[in-house]
Amino acid sequence: MNDHAAGPQTQGALAHQALFPIREVSRLTGVNAVTLRAWERRHGLIQPTRTDSGHRLYSQADIDTIRRIRGWLERGVAVSKVASILARGQASVQDVAVAEPSSRSQALLREAVQRFDTAALAQLFDQLSAAMALERAFTEVLMPVWHDLAAGQGAYGQASEWLFLDQFLRGRVFSHQQSHQQSPRKAQPRRLVLAPLPGPCQELELQVAGLMLGSEDVGVTLLMPGQPLDELALVCERLRPDALVLFANHALTAGMGKRLVRMAPSLQCPLLLAGEAAPLAQDSLAGTPVVCLGAEGAVMRQRLRQYLAGQLDT
Predict the structure, then answer these.
(1) Confidence band of 96 (pLDDT split at 50, 70, 90)
(2) Which residues span the domain enclosing 86?
(3) What pLDDT digit, counting tens, does each position of 194-230 carry?
(4) How far apart are CA 188 and CA 217, in angstroms?
(5) By C-alpha distance, which of 140, 138, 145, 136 is closest to 68?
(6) Whole-prediction pTM value?
(7) Are residues 130 and 62 in the same domain?
(8) Which residues have CB under 8 Å from 280's CB, separation 6+?
(9) Strand extents, DSSP E, the chain
(10) Domain check: are 139 and 210 in the same one?
(11) Cβ atoms of 270 and 243 closer than 8 Å
(12) What does DSSP assign to residue 249?
């Protein structure tokens, strides 16, 4: 079916309703029209509305979803897996909608970022921190906007907006971690080393994973992107953690999965996997020494606690 631009009257209606034809959506997202149709027909990832003549019309929410899809695909996630990832994220938003206006907070966050307004950004961050747990604020408000900007950097200005938000959030997480480390703790908390797997990984993603896994009972030492995988045995020998957690939001290659299995016995501590790589690799790593914690913050933390307590069936 052709998706030609609508006529003058229809264009006026589109502008009023903030709906966009497929050609404009392709320009905004960098995804060609053939792919957009395939994501709709074959995979059900997007559901645009239609004009009376059958032309597709996309809302801003559709465009945001397309950018998320593109972001996951660029990380190596198979298109067949993206639907379940999006569904988990939508369920999280729906669950919290009754208690917290997360969509409104996201809108305010976008406005502050578009103005490069540090003061407004700081005020919103403080309000979110006061209204909910910081982990929840990142899961439901901050990281969704961060991901959308990261996936949409083809549009003019979005690279600068993403860098602005990324720098601000990294600074806030670092400050939180510093104050948390200086607060009174149990005499001997459990200790984790959290390191990124080779491949696409932003520092903020790793910091937020550390935020999700850490607690009063569990201290987390972060190793930044660029950490050599071959030197993790040395790091663990010197730090003697209770576990090494490897983090990745991209699918593992078959070779990397085998490498982790071979590496596990040399670490002198358990090897755990977190991030989107974990549910994607769970079946292939079943029965190996590598334990998958999951991708969502609450799930990762719960499974970590169960594992450290010897209650997780691996």
Answers:
(1) very low
(2) 15-174
(3) 999 887 778 999 999 998 898 878 889 999 888 999 9
(4) 8
(5) 145
(6) 0.65
(7) yes
(8) 77, 78, 81, 251, 252
(9) 20-21, 49-50, 56-58, 190-196, 218-222, 243-247, 271-274, 290-294
(10) no
(11) yes
(12) S
